[in-house]
């Protein structure tokens, strides 16, 4: 089903008395890009599903959300090509009236997907990758959109980087949560309460993955000011607390922007943010530091 | 395109689709439940296993319906509440592209199961308004009442988050199921496990509902901004 079909599907949804939404115009667009122009047999490469979203609209992260539907891809590729697990960038919390909490992407984001080329791929042949995509894009209303994107990657003896695809994927990689815990991070269980602390953080937020043990009152407790985040967890309902931890650090006193010389230089970003993928077993009974 | 040229491609596609698409759409099973929030009202708040809060609402034909009165009627074995917005794609999926709601209602109608759709959309929001709801009830051939909850009070009492968001109440007025209609969270395809059907079968057999809570999916209920 292509984008045309999506338009027809929604023809009955024009709403009287609402802001006019042009349903024929897609609210999100996607491109499939590769970090390489060509690839040798047996190599792993990264491809990116690069989404651009109309201002004011959002797409959904693949973790715990009250509503929505995260982009889903059905891939087709020649036999032996292995499509790895999608890497999702850090989302942002999005709260709607009625205490509805979602984690979303706005403006632009890139899903990064590792692709393994088989060892016996023939030099001179081409790998055709196609992703059949479905996503939901919402503002005041929600619209399902569909797209099919494809890419041909020749098999060559030596890899050849792609400058434009490489740039998109490098930019996308910087928005992924780190897989390495910051050494200063600590956590502790006190009964059913999990406390996570990152010294010097001015704010900490937790975005649970779908398989995480549930956080009680995620709307209320999922984001807290200061260097400590305390989460009520139903420990009996999951093996681990898993998801993305995002924290913001206040500028160090020395970095406080002072009125500089009249050079027109923009002062440094007053707060920096980092995010990290966390997995904390619910069976842990004592303090752990890693 | 790759998929045209060989059966090998199809084979690979099947495997990959099963691995990635299934994980992305269906994996949110009952295990990761639906309790990550608190309702704001400290009094009457719907909780699975407890008495369902009573309410009175008016349908699109001007008739009023009170939950406790419906439950008190002779021969009523259960009540299903379906949060509803006729213009939400997930509602369209179950009322137009598939007949999940109509089929489930029809299967239990003669067994003393009452069903109501509730629209908690605020005035001016998508899917709200008496005329539109009358029109869409006819278009979707909905055989049960569509109740309007424009101020969102009943929706918030039940912590209804999505359209659809399903609630099953037994003859004793106990909320025995809250969650999704089925196990396919996509806006396009219906699932192969209907949780409401399963819950109703248990209620009618006098058994405990096995999956009393699942994670609902859909559009957000279009409540008024505070």
Summarize the structure.
The complex is a heterodimer of chains A (290) and B (226). Chain A is mainly β and 290 residues long.
Written description of the protein model:
The complex is a heterodimer of chains A (290) and B (226). By secondary structure, chain A is mainly beta. Chain A has helices at 3-9, 163-173, 218-221, and strands at 28-34, 36-38, 44-53, 58-60, 72-76, 82-83, 92-96, 100-106, 108-116, 126-138, 142-154, 160-161, 186-190, 193-197, 201-208, 223-225, 228-232, 240-249, 272-281. In chain A, the strands form 6 sheets. Chain A has a 4-stranded antiparallel beta sheet with strand order 1-3-9-6, covered by helices on one side. Chain A has a 4-stranded antiparallel beta sheet with strand order 16-15-18-19. Chain A has a 3-stranded antiparallel beta sheet with strand order 4-8-7, with no helix packed on it. In chain A, strand 10 (126-138) and strand 11 (142-154) form a beta hairpin. The longest helix of chain A has 11 residues, at 163-173. Chain A is globular and about 60 Å long. By secondary structure, chain B is α+β, with helices and mostly antiparallel strands. Helices cover 32% and strands 16% of the residues of chain B. In chain B, strands 2-1-5-4-3-7-8 form a 7-stranded mixed beta sheet. The radius of gyration of chain B is 18 Å and the shape is globular. At the A-B interface, strand 5, strand 8, strand 10, strand 11 and helix 3 of A face helix 2, helix 4 and strand 9 of B.
CA-atom Rg of chain B in angstroms: 18 Å
Helix content of chain B: 25-40%
Strands of chain B, total number: 9
Number of helices of chain B: 8
Distance between the termini of chain B: 50 Å
What form of chain B results from the Cα inertia axes? globular
The helix count of chain A comes to 3
Distance between the termini of chain A: 47 Å
Rounded radius of gyration of chain A (Å): 22 Å
Query: Strands across the major sheet of chain A, in which order?
Result: 1-3-9-6
Overall number of strands of chain A: 19
Instruction: Assign the structural class of chain B, choosing from mainly alpha, mainly beta, alpha/beta, alpha+beta, or little secondary structure.
Output: alpha+beta
Provide mean pLDDT of chain A, rounded: 87
The quaternary state of the protein chains shown equals heterodimer
Low-confidence stretches of chain A: 1-18, 255-264, 286-290
* Order of secondary-structure elements of chain A: HEEEEEEEEEEEEHEEEHEEEE
């Amino acid at each position: 089903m292509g984008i045309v079909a999506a338009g027809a599907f929604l023809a009955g949804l024009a709403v009287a008395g609402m802001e006019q939404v042009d349903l024929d115009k897609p609210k999100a667009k996607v491109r499939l890009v590769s970090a390489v122009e060509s690839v040798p047999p047996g190599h792993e490469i990264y491809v990116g599903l690069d989404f651009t979203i109309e201002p004011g609209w959002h797409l959904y992260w693949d973790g715990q959300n009250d509503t929505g539907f995260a982009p889903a891809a059905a891939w087709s590729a020649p036999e032996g090509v292995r499509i790895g697990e999608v890497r999702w960038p850090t989302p942002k919390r999005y709260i709607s009236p009625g205490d509805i909490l979602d984690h979303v992407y706005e403006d632009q984001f890139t899903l990064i997907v590792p692709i393994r080329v088989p060892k016996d791929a023939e030099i001179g042949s081409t790998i055709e990758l196609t992703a059949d995509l479905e996503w939901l894009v919402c503002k005041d209303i929600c619209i399902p959109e569909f797209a099919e994107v494809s890419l041909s990657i020749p098999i060559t003896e030596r890899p050849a980087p792609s400058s434009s695809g490489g740039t998109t994927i490098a930019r996308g990689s910087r928005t992924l949560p780190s897989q390495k815990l910051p050494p200063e991070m600590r956590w502790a269980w006190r009964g059913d309460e999990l406390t996570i602390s990152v010294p010097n953080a001015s704010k900490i937020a937790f975005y649970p993955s779908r398989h995480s043990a549930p956080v009680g009152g995620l709307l209320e407790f999922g984001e807290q000011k200061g260097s400590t985040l305390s989460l009520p967890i139903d420990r009996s309902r999951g093996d681990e607390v898993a998801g993305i931890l995002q924290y913001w650090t206040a500028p160090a006193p020395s970095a406080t922007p002072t009125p500089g010389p009249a050079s027109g230089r923009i002062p440094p970003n007053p707060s920096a943010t980092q995010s990290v993928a966390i997995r904390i077993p619910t069976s842990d009974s004592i303090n752990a530091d890693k | 395109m790759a998929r045209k040229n060989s059966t090998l491609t199809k084979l690979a596609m099947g495997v990959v689709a099963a691995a990635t698409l299934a994980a992305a759409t269906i994996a949110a099973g009952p295990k990761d439940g639906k309790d990550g929030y608190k309702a704001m009202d400290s009094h009457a708040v719907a909780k699975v296993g407890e008495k369902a809060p009573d309410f009175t609402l008016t349908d699109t034909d001007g008739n009023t319906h009170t939950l406790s009165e419906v439950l008190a009627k002779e021969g009523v074995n259960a009540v299903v509440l379906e949060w509803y917005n006729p213009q939400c794609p997930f509602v369209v999926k179950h009322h137009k592209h598939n007949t999940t709601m109509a089929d489930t209602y029809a299967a239990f109608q003669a067994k003393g199961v009452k069903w109501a759709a509730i629209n908690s959309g605020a005035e001016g929001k998508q899917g709200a308004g008496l005329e539109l709801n009358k029109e869409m009830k006819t278009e979707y051939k909905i055989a049960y009442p569509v109740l309007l909850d424009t101020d969102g009070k009943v929706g918030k009492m039940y912590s209804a988050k999505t359209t659809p968001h399903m609630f099953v109440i037994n003859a004793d007025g106990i909320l025995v199921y809250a969650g999704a209609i089925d196990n396919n969270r996509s806006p396009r395809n219906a699932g192969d496990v209907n949780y409401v059907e399963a819950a109703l079968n248990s209620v009618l057999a006098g058994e405990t509902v096995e999956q009393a809570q699942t994670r609902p999916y859909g559009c957000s209920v279009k409540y008024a901004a505070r």
